[in-house]
Write a structure and sequence with these properties.
- With 484 residues, the protein is an alpha/beta fold.
- The protein folds into 3 domains: 2-54 and 448-482, Urease, subunit C, domain 1 (Roll), CATH 2.30.40; 71-171, Roll (Diaminopimelate Epimerase, Chain A, domain 1); 176-436, Alpha-Beta Barrel (TIM Barrel), CATH 3.20.20.
- It is 31% helix and 25% strand.
- It is built from 19 helices and 21 strands.
- The chain has helices at 62-68, 80-88, 116-122, 142-145, 160-171, 176-192, 212-216, 235-240, 280-292, 304-316, 320-323, 335-344, 352-358, 364-369, 371-374, 380-384, 403-411, 422-427, 431-436; strands spanning 2-11, 14-15, 20-25, 28-33, 42-53, 55-60, 72-73, 98-103, 128-132, 137-140, 158-159, 195-206, 225-232, 245-251, 296-301, 326-329, 347-350, 391-392, 454-457, 470-475, 478-482.
- Strands 1, 2, 3, 4, 5, 19, 20 and 21 form an 8-stranded mixed beta sheet that branches. Strands 7-8-9-10-11 form a 5-stranded mixed beta sheet.
- The longest helix is centred in the middle third of the chain and has 17 residues, at 176-192.
């Protein structure tokens, strides 16, 4: 039994008027105390800090993020020569694939991807997989391209199904010990970012659920709570693995950066409206069958055309509110589509960092979609004010796995009409996240009977004057991260 003392507590969408203490036994909150504190238990003083319920990120690619964190981060480069120099430092001869990630060619002075010849000039013997920041495009050096069966395209930049095929080929070569190491690395990054739990997908977004069973059987070994999704269309494999949900990033469309997100109207200065990856009938058959097996379904849909395609199926099912089917990303929504989402009972799982990075009248969305559509991207407030329960994610490795960053971004949307209040922004990472995974009675709140998950910060996250500091992260009553 442990007593955490002297902290302001976030209870019922507000701070307690005075510091209080939390009594924790066997990972569960047993009492909230303001005076007459017990003296016969271990006590940890939080020194007047602010204690939120533990934050949960409801959409991550934790295997990739953990694995890539062991590779080369390209977010810092601003020119092709800088990129090549960073890769060249890892050119040592090895059969192991080198993963480089977070390339944003728009941030480079040259405004382009490197060429294969440029990649080969600095790393030609070791296989290299270089991924764009949105995960929907990649490049391979010649050594890597030679390994991928069935890769016949001459295009240097791989997009769509070719991107998925190539990347999943290399992911499937990773051995179990390295897979577990990747998830441990992801858990460490999550704790540093203030999270006590994260949802993550496992599988190839086609017919393999990958190493789902390996992680399922090792969940107790991780310092955070993983909620896992078989990322696959293979219902039988998911059933055999004992899963209760399916999807995550099974794709209705692609991304705005790769111009594969499916739109009702064309992209700016283009005739393209993106791509619907599957037919209406395919989704109707798959989602209906999944619902019959009581699977909670989660589908990636970014553009308004793709969101409507998936939501129309959800709307046809009586089970959607019960199973809490998900619209992953749900970025471009006009008022009519918001009404339809309300009618379906689906849950938008959204990423505040997308607006932080790409919103605004001069931002990436405006350049790709035009000013009018850029202002109806990521409509957090409009959805929530329409009694739609939104959940928050980072899409990590795409954006940072950092709770304060995401929560503050939700409160500072480029469109003031879409800004969340402090309480709403906290909710999408706490009680809404717990509700999404059918754990609303055991997680996501500070109250007796709930799991003792806490994120301790030096100041409330709506104090925009200074940078918040994550002081401690406590999972099931145990301090798993502490600021040094």
């Amino acid at each position: 039994m442990t007593l955490y003392t002297n902290a302001y507590l976030w209870i019922n969408d507000a701070w307690t008027a005075q510091p209080a203490a939390l009594l924790v036994d066997n990972g569960i909150i047993t009492d909230i105390l303001y005076h007459n504190l017990p003296t016969n238990v271990a006590s940890i003083n939080l020194y007047g800090a602010y204690c939120y319920p533990g934050f949960t990120d409801t959409h991550t690619h934790s295997f990739e993020g953990g694995l890539y964190s062991l590779g080369v981060d390209l977010s810092v480069v601003r020119t092709i020569p800088e990129l090549l120099a960073l890769l060249g430092a890892n050119k040592h001869n090895s059969a192991d694939t080198l993963f480089a990630w977070q390339l944003d060619e728009a941030q480079l002075a040259e405004k382009r991807f490197p060429t294969i010849a440029e990649l080969d000039s600095v790393i030609n013997l070791r296989p290299l997989v270089l991924r764009r920041i949105d995960g929907h495009s990649c490049m391979l050096n010649t050594a890597a391209r030679a390994l991928v069966p069935g890769l016949t395209t001459k295009d240097e930049i791989l997009r769509g199904t070719e991107n998925d095929h190539a990347v999943h080929y290399f992911h499937k070569q990773i051995q179990p010990d390295t897979i577990l190491q990747a998830y441990q690395a992801a858990a460490k990054i999550a704790l540093q970012g203030g999270f006590t739990g994260i949802h993550t997908m496992i599988g190839d977004a086609d017919n393999s659920i990958g190493h789902y069973s390996l992680i399922r059987d090792n969940l107790s070994k991780f310092p955070i709570s993983y909620t896992i999704y078989p990322q696959s269309f293979n219902l039988k494999a998911a059933l055999d693995a004992g899963a209760s949900r399916i999807g995550g990033c099974i794709l209705a469309d692609g991304s705005i950066g790769s111009m594969t997100a499916a739109l009702n109207s064309p992209y700016e200065n283009s005739d393209s409206r993106g791509v619907l990856y599957q037919s209406d009938q395919f989704w109707a058959d798959f989602i209906t069958q999944a619902a019959k097996h009581k699977f909670q379904v989660a589908v990636h849909c970014i553009g308004d055309r793709a969101i409507k395609q998936i939501n129309d199926v959800y709307k046809s099912l009586d089970s959607t509110p019960l199973l809490r089917h998900q619209l992953i990303h749900c970025e471009l929504t006009d008022n009519t589509l918001i009404e339809e989402i309300y009618a379906s009972g689906a849950v938008p799982v959204m990423q505040p960092n997308f607006d932080l990075l790409w919103g605004g009248d001069e931002g990436f969305y405006a350049r790709k979609l035009g000013g009018q559509r850029s202002r109806i991207m990521n409509r957090f407030a409009s959805l929530m004010n329409h009694s739609i329960r939104v959940c928050g994610g980072s899409d990590w490795y795409i954006t940072a796995l950092n709770a304060p960053m995401s929560i503050i971004a939700a409160m500072n949307h480029h469109n003031p009409a879409e800004r969340l209040t402090h309480a709403q922004a906290i909710a999408i990472y706490t009680k809404n996240a717990a509700w999404l995974s059918h754990e609303e009675n055991s997680r996501g709140a500070i109250k007796p009977g709930c799991q003792a998950d806490f994120t301790i910060v030096n100041q409330p996250l709506d104090n925009f004057g200074t940078q918040p500091i994550i002081q401690k992260v406590i999972c099931k009553g145990v301090i798993r991260y502490e600021q040094v």
